[in-house]
Amino acid sequence: MSTQQYSRYEASKADKTWEIIIGFAIPIIAFVGYIWYKNWKIRIWRKGIFPADLTFTTAHLMEAYSCLTVYLITIDRYHQMQKIAYLRSFFIRQFKGSPDHFDDIIDRNFHYPIEPVSVVNWVNQHAREQQKKQLVQFLVGLCHIDKLLKPKEYTALKVFTKNLQLEAAFLEECILFYQKERATHANNQEQQRTASGSTGVSQRKKYADILGVNESADEKEIKQRYRQLVKRYHPDKYVNESKEQQKQANQRFLEIQEAYEFLLSGK
Fold first, then answer.
1. More confident position, 244 or 110
2. Which positions are tagged coiled coil (predicted)?
3. In terms of CATH architecture, what is 198-265?
4. CATH numeric code, 58-193
5. Longest dimension (CA), the chain
6. What is the 3-state secondary structure (H, E, C) of the chain?
7. Per-residue pLDDT for 71 more than 80?
8. Contact indicator for 114, 67 with CB cutoff of 8 Å
9. CB-hemisphere CA count at 13 Å for 18?
């Protein structure tokens, strides 16, 4: 082999060596970069900031709904389970299913609360006006689950509406709608009580029947039966069923939640 041929051989060998090194290095650098980016995102979440650069996807929009739901629950924890069930029910109706690991998302938001204004600002940046209005309608409905809009809830709703660049009158219309719904519901209940002569005792019997326990059931028995029924009628089990079956299961799920909270309240 001549000196010239040897030189070309050595150069070719060196080029192949560099190609191998680069071939290994690029995936490693990409992997390290991905891990760093994910950790950076996690640090942002744990600082309580909704990442402003998140793309506008259904999954991220559901995340925004979850963050704001948990925030409003922390303002008023009464009927907490029903509010979480209301959120899940909304997801199933609006987005055709709740997100994977729904319970984990809710738990994470309780442990690492997200600043609500950063969530609303993200929605305002990406969503259409109709989607913004839908969010406000949902939040107003969430606050009215316990039949009363608290002052702190009202203040939060006004801030959200303003940051979404919606008219204050729209918020008042939503509140008025739910107040009328509440008044109608209360009137119907009063008529039912008058017609049946129901008492506090019969009310407890009604909820005990929903759970399938005795009126005198203790807390342990109530919780045990509640867990059994929640597993059976959980909305996620009916995602692939007909809309009518989904509706019935969701209604049953909400009744179970209401009965459980009433019986544990000791009324």
1. 110
2. none
3. Orthogonal Bundle (1.10)
4. 1.10.3680
5. 112
6. CCHHHHHHHHHHHHHHHHHHHHHHHHHHHHHHHHHHHHHHHHHHHHCCCCCCCCCCCHHHHHHHHHHHHHHHHHHCCCCHHHHHHHHHHHHHHHHCCCCCCHHHHHHHHHHCCCCHHHHHHHHHHHCCHHHHHHHHHHHHHHHCCCCCCCHHHHHHHHHHHHHCCCCHHHHHHHHHHHHHHHHHHHHHHHHHHHHHCCCHHHHHHHHHHHHCCCCCCCHHHHHHHHHHHHHHHCHHHHCCCCHHHHHHHHHHHHHHHHHHHHHHHCC
7. yes
8. yes
9. 6
Average pLDDT of span 41-55: 73
pLDDT for the residue 2: 55
Number of other residues whose CB lies within 10 A of the CB of residue 41: 13
Amino acid at 208: A
- Mean pLDDT (whole number) for 131-148: 91
Please give the average per-residue pLDDT across 26-49, as a whole number: 60
Instruction: Give me the residue spans of the domains in the chain.
Output: 58-193, 198-265
Residues 6+ apart with CB under 8 A from 217: 208, 211, 225, 263
> Which tokens hold the place of 88?
């899940």
Q: How far apart are CA 256 and CA 208, in angstroms?
A: 10
Average pLDDT, integer, range 146-167: 93
Report d(CA 251, CA 187) in Å as an integer: 21
Q: Which of 83, 70, 65 is nearest to 144 (CA)?
A: 83
